Give the backbone structure.
Amino acid sequence: LLVGGSENECYNTSGKQIFVRRHGFSNPAVAQSESRLVVFDRGGTGYSVENMDRVLYTGTMRGNIYNAAMGRSGVSAFALSSVEYSGELQVYNKKMENIFNWYSAEATLTAVGVSDNGRRIAAGGVAVSGGAYRSTVYLFDTKQSAPIFSAVIEGGAIVSIEPVGSSFLIVCSDRVLLLDRDGTQKAAVQATGTLHLVRNTEGRIAVVDKLAGNSGDYCVSLLDKKGNSLGVFTVRMNVRDVCVVGDSVALLSDSKVWFYTFSGNAASSADCDYSVSGIGAAGGKLYLSGLREISRISPASAA
């Protein structure tokens, strides 16, 4: 799925175009599940819910959309601005019927995630206290009116939230947290320098930390969906993107894709064009994305 300035395009793994649709949004963003997606105008009010065949629903929210998420069941959640409150959370079922609302008195909601079954919602907000940012993560059950869990994260702004198995991956500006559906912390990775990249590939999480004081050193930490460590190692290269594929870690540098074992041994590399800016995996296949082209390469096995 490619999100463009005026239209979205979708292709299968052989490169055949499935659809191209104009969206008309000035700042388009997409949240998706396996079979549906919600296209929304970040900072605006418009949205559309679509599947591979057609546009299912279109509409406008009463507040500006800061972020949105969609669960595997088709439940979607929107973090909105509010006239009377600091922020507003609205949740809809797969028929776009409103099933849950919550209003934040202090924090502006900037991130949201939906569990696979659509029952649990995680939202992150930021407020200013004493001249410093203070972020709060909230967990909701759509059958209860109040949050079932909340936790303050001092100093770190919440960047994104997404479900990983039965947990939520909370990415902050200086750390990564994995919380289960009741708020219990299953794992945490604190950046010792600058948190550079966080990628979730089918339940395996790669965290890349640019180490302080070493301009060319990056620490790569790997977690599974239960919060168990798969490996930690350091590399010296300009890491532009990262992806866990098969039994190896693919690191995109300036002109190569490097394949490492989970223990940090370099297995092989593949040359790529300088225009390649991202890597991603789907169905065990590895894709390189550039300015105007997507290409598929064979992942190297760490064995």
